[in-house]
Amino acid sequence: MFRSxxxxxxxxxxxxxxxxxxxxxxxxxxxxxxxxxxDAIRIYNQExxxxxxxxxxxxxxxxxxxxxxxxxxDGYTIAHYRxxxxxxxxxxxxxxxxxxxxxxxxSATEAxxxxxxxxxxxxxxxxxxxxxxxxxxxxxYFGSGWYEKE
Length: 150
Known about the structure:
Layout: H1 2-19, H2 29-47, H3 49-56, E1 68-71, E2 77-79, H4 102-105, E3 113-120, E4 127-137, E5 140-147
Antiparallel strand pairs: 1-2, 1-5, 3-4, 4-5
């Protein structure tokens, strides 16, 4: 009896462990960034376009250096924690070094694409290299990024 109960417990724990997926932490910035984008797509799919736009247009969307933005089918930003970035013309996506990164962002596919450029950090205002993960989904572009440490 004890042996079968112990075996049942071991098998149950093994099944539970097999179903668990490790959630990336901020110590793994690339994986964490990709998980934020996937979560944004999940919110979009479950709650709808307007709910996703409303959520990611809020300053509560910012977690230190991380936030999600959404770009519409026409290339204009439709969700960003900075209200002045909503409606941003894609031709203005030029970084502090003069690199035009707009076309790179808009070339993202459903498989996703990393784009790197110089940008100011929301938590400090410091201008540094940003690595942005962008995924095209349902005609929209969902993105988030992390900043290199100096």
